[in-house]
Amino acid sequence: MAPHGEVLVWGCRADDLSVLRRACRLEGQRVLVLKGTAEVARRAASGCPLALVLGIGRRSRTRLDVIPVFRAVRSELPVIVIADEDSLELERRARRAGIFYYLVHPLDSREVKAVLEDLLRHAGSHRSGGGGPPRSRVGLED
Fold it and tell me: pTM value?
C-alpha cells in the first residue's frame, strides 16, 4: 500500500500544477500549494510531507539556494524541481543541492506518474530502512 501524505508545492506554473495535482490525486496524495520560504520551511519541519516540489523560472532561481536549508532540517525530504527552461547549468546546480528529480516544463503526465511512483517507492523504502532515491537523467550528474 502506498504511503499517503502531502506533496508541498512552491512556485509551479498553473499548467504544471494541474498535471501534478491530477497525478497525485490518482495515487491518493494531497497537493498543498505554499506561498513563500517561511511557509515552506514551517510545513517541511512539521508533519511528514512526501516531497517538496519547487518551480524554478528565470526570476526564481534563488529557490535553489533554499534546498540545502530544507535538507538540513529534513534530510530525508525529497525535493523535485520543475524548471521553466531546459538548462544544463540549472540542472547541475539543482543536482548539487541534492534534489530527487529534475523535470522540465511542460510536464508530461506519464513522466509525472513515473516520478510519483518512484517517490512513493522511496517513501516506502525509507520508512522501512531501504535504499535512497532513484537517479533520473543518468549521465548528467557532475
Answer: 0.83
